Amino acid sequence: MNYDLNKLSEPEQKTSTYKALGKLLKLISHEQKNLSLAFLAIILNTSVNLFGPFLIGHAIDKYVVTKQFHGLLVFGGILLGMYLIGLVTSYQQTILMGGVGQRLLFTLRNAIFNKLQQLPVAFFNQNKAGDLISRVNNDTDKLNQFFSQSLMQFVGSIFTMLGAGIFLLAINVRLGAAALLPAVLILVFTMVLSPWVKSSNAKNLKSTGGLSAEIQESLSNFKVVIAFNRRDYFRKRFQLANLDNYQTSIRAGLANNIFMPVYTLFSNIAQLIVLTYGIYLISMGEFTIGLLVSYLAYAVHFYNPLRQLAALWTNFQVAMAGWDRISHILTLETNLTALPETETVAGPLLEFRNVHFGYDTKEILHHVSFKLERGKTYALVGPTGGGKTTTASLIARLYDPKEGTVLLDGKDIRSYSAEERSQKIGFILQEPFLFSGTIRENILYGNEQLKDHSNEKLEQVILSANMGEILALFDDGLDTKVTSAGDSISLGQKQLIAFMRAVLRSPEVLILDEATANIDTVTEKLLGNILKQLPDSTTQVIIAHRLNTIESADEIFFVNSGEVNRAGSLDDAMHMLLKDNRTS
Ligand SMILES: Nc1ncnc2c1ncn2[C@@H]1O[C@H](COP(=O)(O)OP(=O)(O)OP(=O)(O)O)[C@@H](O)[C@H]1O
Questions:
Q1: In whole angstroms, what separates CA 553 from the centre of its chain?
Q2: Which residue, 51, 240, 361, 556, is the most exposed by fewest CB within 10 angstroms?
Q3: Which pTM does this prediction carry?
Q4: What is the chain's percent helix, strand, coil content, to nearest 5?
Q5: Do 322 and 355 lie in a common domain?
Q6: Which domain holds residue 146?
Q7: Complex ipTM, two decimals?
Q8: Which of 276, 295, 330 is the last residue in one of the domains?
Q9: What is the pLDDT of residues 135-192, one digit of tens each?
Q10: Which residue's CA is the nearest one to ligand 1's atom 1?
């Protein structure tokens, strides 16, 4: 399955945009009351603004032309009242929509983050963290800006235009048609240019994501950058990404700003038409001065919102480009779904049955079959890049086979829920990841059974699991601080914490992927003893390059060139490795 968000096909992109629109509507469905109130406020506001010019024109013809100035005061009072209503309704809709926008931003960020948590490892292999961060932070904000600042203005502008258009046509059809002609040209112009504006903004957002990915990569690898003195390399890469972002921003800016001047030009032309044609009609006795004043005001009421729409249309296109990028994540589904419960068939604890697997088109495991019995210790050996971690990842169902089945306890591993599976399988990764916090928080991560234990009780559990000596290696015990993804402690110490984390979950299968590679010989022996004292039913899968670490294995598998074969004894494994090194 293709999880690369930047390489989705055209139809995939289109379906996700529409599919996700349904999700967006669901996310704001509980805002119905606020949206209706804001809508009401905007209609009231528009109506009040639209009646103003009519009243002014009427007042001119009735009181100014006939010089009955006292009537003007009454009209002035009415107008003031209407303007105050306009002020209150405008404020109300701003407040209401601001709230809707912020809540949408909040819900949307949560929804995307939750979705990210559900996606499989393959998704994270194919996408850069920086780009994902940009989607969660930057792109959602584009949508918020549209909702909180533009949507109601958008609705208001359309209402004002519609009302003003009706007044223009109702007062004088011919003059109205002439005044509205430039608007038709604007409409055509907008329809032709909108796809270009949207795609320019999409490119700009993509480039912002790329820039963010570049920053993220160089910051998270800063030690390598400094050690290899490759600052120039990253500086150049950053400059390229920054240059691309600069260029796409300029292009998006150009596209975004094209509407405003054109709209202004057409708006001025419309006023010129009204003025010239209106004066002509007055000279012919077919129109009054008061009506012309109202007319000019309505032309302004029609074209000003249209100019505003130009800016809003740009915001809309930016929001849509952002929405496309968000929707691609929201509509992705994990390919690691749980199958319906299947019947348990008595058999080994774990079995690979004709498994084929590859990360992409290249096959890494080819027609692999083997069985692991309960309570035994297995070693996976083989050359670098031979497929040991891949085999272990399939045991932990980080990926599903392309063909064939992995059976856990007699059932297809896909029929277990994620909770059940992670309870049964403990995996100590080659590069253990620790969260910022304390050792306690890290070893209790995902451990429902022990999470509420006090430090004293937890220490007891650690002692009875024979891991007291490991904990004693840390000065502050369970409260030892782990900062910034574990950078404050050594790699070996990280492996010890990851070891405690996995063992405390009492898994049925414990996978150790190079779990002792960075630990001194004395501590390694200590871990060996702890492993020996694990419950008899625990099956261990040990991946190690140092053959002495697998001396205690009941059975050894040699993993290479897509195959997993029994190696027989340690000597056989050694022989196979040496042979493989000589032939390669
Ligand atoms: N996420 C991935 N995406 C694409 N290819 C991958 C990925 N992870 C591993 N591979 C490829 O799969 C092959 C097997 O890798 P794997 O990590 O399973 O080997 P290994 O035997 O565990 O190696 P090592 O002893 O170095 O840990 C390698 O060719 C590697 O390049």
A1: 44
A2: 361
A3: 0.66
A4: 65, 10, 25
A5: no
A6: 8-330
A7: 0.95
A8: 330
A9: 888 888 888 888 777 777 777 788 888 888 888 888 888 888 888 888 888 888 888 8
A10: 125
